[in-house]
């Protein structure tokens, strides 16, 4: 990797970090997701999860957060493109929010499948 490629990589990482921090500061849903992510990490420690269970929990948390962040970015973009009400934009935003909801519901199912055998 050349020096220029490395500088570009560092710059790209910095932009991504700034975007993540901004999202955490400004978006209530991300704060809720992060609360549940932290709760799951604590529950994982208390439940003595095995390696595979930890991997599934980490992947599930990452996918859920990632989809929600993409949903937020898409909503912001659509609001910028069309600040006034637009039925097509509303439909697109609803579909994107639906993808975040499906991911969140799948996460709840996955967490139950992993934790219930440890607890009951």
Describe the structure.
It contains four helices and no strands. It has helices at 3-26, 28-47, 51-81, 87-119. Helix 2 runs parallel beside helix 4. It is flat, with a radius of gyration of 18 Å. The chain starts with a helix and ends with a helix. The relative contact order is 0.10.
| Strand percentage | under 5%
Low-confidence stretches: none
Broad shape = flat
Structural class of the secondary elements? mainly alpha
Beta strands, count = 0
* Number of helical segments with 4 or more residues: 4
Radius of gyration: 18 Å
Distance between the termini: 51 Å
Bin the helical content: over 70%
Mean pLDDT: 95
| SSE ordering | HHHH
- Major sheet: size, sense and barrel closure? none
Short key terms for the protein model shown above:
4 helices; flat; mainly alpha; 120 residues
Layout of helices and strands:
Layout: H1 3-26, H2 28-47, H3 51-81, H4 87-119
Helix pairs in contact: 2-3, 2-4, 3-4
How do you describe this structure in short?
With 120 residues, the chain is mainly α. Helix content is 90%, strand content 0%. The model has no long low-confidence stretch (mean pLDDT 95).
């Amino acid at each position: 990797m050349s020096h220029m490629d490395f500088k570009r990589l560092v710059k790209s990482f910095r932009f991504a970090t700034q975007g993540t921090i901004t999202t955490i500061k400004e978006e209530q849903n991300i704060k809720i997701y992060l609360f549940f992510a932290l709760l799951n990490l604590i529950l994982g420690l208390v439940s003595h999860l095995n390696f595979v269970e930890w991997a599934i929990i980490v992947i599930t948390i990452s996918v859920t957060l990632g989809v929600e962040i993409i949903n937020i970015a898409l909503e912001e973009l659509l609001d910028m493109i069309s600040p006034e009400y637009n039925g097509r934009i509303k439909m697109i935003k609803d579909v994107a929010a639906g993808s975040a909801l499906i991911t969140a519901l799948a996460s709840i199912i996955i967490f139950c499948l992993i934790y219930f055998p440890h607890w009951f």
